[in-house]
Amino acid sequence: MKIAILPGDGIGPEVTREAVTVLKALDLPGMTLFDGDVGGAAYKRHGHPLPQETLTMAREADAVLFGAVGDPDCDGLERSLRPEQAILGLRKELDLFANLRPAKVFPGLEHLSPLKPEIAATLDLLIVRELTGDVYFGDKGERVAQDGGREGWDMMSYSDTEVRRIARVGFRAARSGDGRLCSVDKANVLETSQVWRDTVKDAASAHPDIDLSHMYVDNAAMQIISNPAQFGVILTGNLFGDILSDLASAAVGSIGLLASASMGDRATAGGLFGLYEPIHGSAPDIAGQGKANPMATILSAAMMLRHSFGMEAEAMRIEAAVSGALADGIRGGDLGGTHGTEAIGAAVLERL
Ligand code: IPM
Ligand code: MG
Questions:
Q1: Does residue 160 have its Cβ closer than 6 Å to ligand 1?
Q2: Ligand 1 centroid to 27 CA: how many Å?
Q3: What is the per-residue pLDDT across 289-314, written as a single tens digit (0 to 9) for each?
Q4: Which of these, 257, 247, 259, lies nearest to 337 by C-alpha position?
Q5: pLDDT grade, residue 242 (50/70/90)?
Q6: What pTM was computed for the model?
Q7: Within the chain, what is the greatest distance between any pair of CA atoms?
Q8: What does DSSP say about strands 124-130 and 272-278: parallel, antiparallel, or unpaired?
Q9: Number of the ligand 1 atom closest to the C-alpha atom of 131
Q10: In contact, 158 and 237? CB cutoff 8 Å
Q11: Confidence band for 253, pLDDT divided at 50, 70 and 90
């Protein structure tokens, strides 16, 4: 169990520390942790947000636990040196094309959702987001506009090969869930989405047991808020998945509770190689103050045990400890509470 720990920027190191403590407490045989620099922290130390040695460490590991990247000090750097390139580079270099983002309201926290509690209680969905294609990784640049001003451009595309492999993950996830899969696109406007939709429809013939539907992304944004119960698994592209997963996390009540897994095809002894990270960012405004909620990172470590190491029982133990702490009133500032990072970590450990 070789795990690369990449804490990154802002609150990344604080929340990662708590997740590592939880992992160590499980006393798993053969677990070895390696620390690497990423993001603005890596830029400041090595002149690059994703140094070669960090990439090599991640490649040689069975799983990566990632904190967050993003540092206002680096906003003026050229794009290729900005902290965000570390996570985008890891996803691309390690071919982590499938991003799983579960969003579920914890029992007892319905009142913390901005939705009506009776609607919030029905939110329990999984976003399967394609992670290595789309407008994120197309050619981009700046040119002179026709009127002589500036013009930025970004190229959006999906090949049917890319769609087919993420669709397979979506169908598989729907099968382990309740059989419902909703593919989200913008096929009424975008050619990229037309290829997406046609390819997903083709793939459906191999999965007759799955109840497949299609929805435009603008409508999906509205439906997640107004009637979340209709969704089981949502399958979507990189850009739409980025936006909808923040939307879903807000509906849960806090982005500080949502974990994610990014996987490819590479097998490990107990599952698949993956990168695990909270879906929140580096939160520079509260960095270093011990205020950040580490639950999303702790839950990401649980996903790692499940998906990369086949340790379902241990994953469930961590998840139960987190929901136990929440049920007992342990709340970070993100949930309107006063518990700090270490106190939340300790509360989870105690229940573990
Ligand atoms: C996410 C983040 C990243 C993304 C940023 C940090 C590049 O928002 O993981 O959702 O856009 O994918
Ligand atoms: Mg995002």
A1: no
A2: 32
A3: 999 999 999 999 999 999 999 999 99
A4: 257
A5: very high
A6: 0.94
A7: 65
A8: unpaired
A9: 12
A10: yes
A11: confident
pLDDT tens-digit profile of 19-76? 999 999 999 999 999 999 999 999 999 999 999 999 999 999 999 999 999 999 999 9
Contact 180, 209 (CB under 8 A): no
CB neighbours (10 Å) of residue 81? 15
The span from the CA of 10 to the CA of 101, in Å, is 22
| AA letter at 337 | G
How far is ligand 1, taken at its centre, from the CA of residue 41, in Å?
Answer: 17
Bridge partner residues of 5 (DSSP)? 35, 65
Q: Nearest CA to 129 among 89, 93, 158?
A: 158
Q: State the Cα–Cα distance between residues 38 and 45, nearest whole angstrom.
A: 10
What is d(CA 291, CA 68) in angstroms, rounded to the nearest whole number?
15
Pocket test for ligand 1, best of 84, 154, 262, 275 (most atoms within 8 A of CB): 84
What are the DSSP calls for 16-38, one per residue?
A: HHHHHHHHHHT--TT-EEEE---
